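Pasting as-is:
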Amino acid sequence: MPGPLEAAVAAAERSRLPGEAERAFLVGVEFRNRTGVHPQGAGEAVEDSQPIPPQARQAKSASSKTLRLDADDHAVPFNAEESLAELRELTESAGAAVVGEVLQRRDRPDPATLIGRGKVEEIAAAAKATDADVLIFDHELSGSQLRNLEREFHCRVVDRTQLILDIFARHARTREGQLQVELAQLEYMLPRLGGRGAEMSQLGGGIGTRGPGETQLETDRRKIHRRIKHVKEQIEDVRRVRSQQRQRRESIPVPVVALVGYTNAGKSTLFNALTRAGVVESSRMFATLDPTLRTVTLPSRRDILLSDTVGFIRNLPTTLVSAFRATLEEVQRAAILLQVIDATSPTAAEQMAQVESVLRELEAFDKPQIHVLNKIDLFDDKTRATLKDTAESVHISAARGIRLEPLLAAIDARLEQDPIERARLKVPQSEGRALAQLESRSVVLSRHYGENETVELEVDAPVSLLRRLSQFVVADAATNKRIRKRAIRTRQ
């Protein structure tokens, strides 16, 4: 016989019209006295003229006006209202309609219900009044807290991690993405298995059946462990195939530049603007789960592989980081990271700190980075005129295609693989292949048709190309020696 929770869920499903979104009631919680959590208002105010609003800490100089983080900014938290606003976005990305929300501040979490008996009764009444189907907590809940809250509310209770996992499950398109989401869901579920009355008692009962019987809980755990092992084996197969593909790519050395950043910062929009790949662009969080690689030609005529990756978020579940390690290998192997930042977000500095925290976990934080401050089209003309790029930051609008050329130039300047060298070459006109390579893979600064049907060119070209065409290079001994040294470093 179904219990009160199952009956309530079934009734809600029957009452909802086909295609109607679930009705979600949000619960935000802030613990004032917990280590590392600060009360609302933490952080320093900045001048109104800055493009990044209040919570971002700025470092100004005479030559630049851009977002920067100090070393201690990695501990700057989202305040409670900002966190609840992000939960609202996540809920809408999951396809639910927010019908109400409440924020509680207390000194410490209640071990049984997280929020305390009085608040439980208040929220239960509010959820009933709004006819909510599900309550979503902006905090991770233990298995016992989930069961206690469901018993009190008579409807489903979901925590932040479950919500993110659900969004990932909705957006996974490839077999690889689906496997990684399933692994994260199983690893989240395993420690939260717990008894609900007689259904989790020993299977045997009554005279003649007593003994060391296996509990239903143990059976479920064994099944989940078996499934986790199977999914990990399949993901390992995917990783092996991806490694083989990478080895084939690396046989023709083309550096990888990876887009990283907070979810919904505009990474896929920028990826499409630079590559015309047509990947899904969406204002909803975590629209991109499956990595995509496309070739981009830089102003120096060098080619790079641009990689679009999954977005990060604060308190990204550890199970997700672990499960998506195969996908995030592109970040670990990238020559340069483009950290895309929503320049209009009031929490831009905190978002950067969260992204850098994940990069540290992936052991990729020390890689060369360029901060790409996106969405400047949302600023007025006067504010845009004050924005100054640096060697490590570029202001763009991916949606409008504004200032993409300076971004490509910045990548060109930071790329150390296959460096650019200026050289003079004398090539016979009969060497059509060599001339075609110079035209397509170098910037020709001057061209002069000389005697004996030769072409004299001055070019900025990759060292790898000059090495292949070394018999045509006309230079002094020092230049030739420098080219050979650069070529040796490139091979290494």
